[in-house]
Amino acid sequence: MKRHRNVKIVATLGPASSTYEVIRALVEAGADVFRLNMSHGEHSEIRARHEIIRQVEADLGSPIAILADLQGPKLRVGTFANGEEELVEGAAFRLDLDEAEGDATRVRLPHKEIFDALEPGASLLVNDGKIRLRVKECGPDFADCEVVVGGTISNRKGVNVPDVVLPLAALSEKDRKDLEFVCDLGVDWLALSFVQRAADVEEARQLCKGRAAILSKIEKPAAVKAFEEILAASDGIMVARGDLGVELPVQNVPPIQKQLVRRCRAAAKPVIVATQMLESMIESPMPTRAEVSDVATAIYEGADAIMLSAESAAGQYPVQAVATMDNVADEVEHDPTYRDIIESSRKVTHNSVADGIVAAAREIAETTNVKAICCFSQSGTTASLVARERPRVPILALTSVQNTARRLCLTWGTNCVITGEVDRFKAAVVAAARAAREQGLATEADMIVVTAGVPFNTPGSTNILRVAPCAERLIYSAESE
């Protein structure tokens, strides 16, 4: 299904979007990637949704990417004898390992790793930051705190520790089981929650064994500080603004979002902007004006994808939420200012032959009447490099590898077509011309740019470019001359 926009839309599946009819409607409304949230749902439910997506994919004849989002280590307080307590600003409150139920003065925090890492002056945030504690004194099994911001604390509320790098593995025991399950299932992308260091990504990659691409969620200050190393170790990035906005001052999130999007683009790795994009559409058929502006901002910044969470998973208007995103994207990308912003933020990167080839392809397309850039890519690298250039013409990625076509559904502006294997460049040009015509990107009277790597089927070998006619008879005629 050819899109008339470049940014991709990720829709989370859940109770509101678990049937064939709704999932197909989401694709037809504009969803390119489906997120399976491993924090919710049994394996049987995840399997059923996966099967439906693949059935919709087969019925529509167009690749669809599936992203499995691991829960990550969840830090939570224990329970209270009264179910909840009111913490007052300035009061003392203790966190410890005692298994007794909590009261207004203390509660269990069953995570010894936190106590091992804490230092006096560190902040602890409870219930999405609604309660803030400052550590006054701590030891291997306790932390005596002062209540800086009070509020109601209740059973098993989440805890964030923004000031320190915790000695926690990014993958819990549940995550390891979920990882093995979804990789065997055949997901295309695996999202890691609460990444703190590049080693977290490498651990997941070893467990994945090439079965899925690795996407790191940036939602902790430690991840922002170590971003270059995490980006280098990852195949993609998600700017997860929910927890990031809890652990950092909220005013810090917009500039961080902009910086991370640009750095991902420079590295030719896809980046998703996520969390609360159309939050009001959980209960309303219309978004707020501020939400629409937020979605538009991510598109203007050049993000590869924008994501819906509860809006499509549990909301009352999942299809409308996707359609709204699609409409906003279409409007933004037809704004002349959009091209000005995208092109002014293009970073010149000529470190390899492949960099030079894709830059030349974009310049040729923009200074002539070429209708599309067609790239043959077994691993997806060539298509990702072309997308980094953010060309004005459509990108047509041709590959004989189904998994590559699916993974590229997350990459900006890329239309993916699965082709047979080719071993000669002329055959590649013929296949590209045929695909461009079939996708409605060009007619027999038009020209296309074709890029590929010779020898074929060698990842990362992009080294050839040709401007070719779309009419096959002209291709053969040119070859014979």
TrEMBL record:
It comes from Limimaricola pyoseonensis. Keywords: ATP-binding, Glycolysis, Kinase, Magnesium, Metal-binding, Nucleotide-binding, Pyruvate, Transferase. It holds the Pfam family PK_C. The keyword ATP-binding applies. Its EC number is 2.7.1.40. Its cofactor is Mg(2+); K(+). GO terms for molecular function: ATP binding; kinase activity; magnesium ion binding; potassium ion binding; pyruvate kinase activity. It catalyses: pyruvate + ATP = phosphoenolpyruvate + ADP + H(+). This is Pyruvate kinase. Belongs to the pyruvate kinase family. Residues 356-467 form the Pyruvate kinase C-terminal domain. Residues 5-322 form the Pyruvate kinase barrel domain.
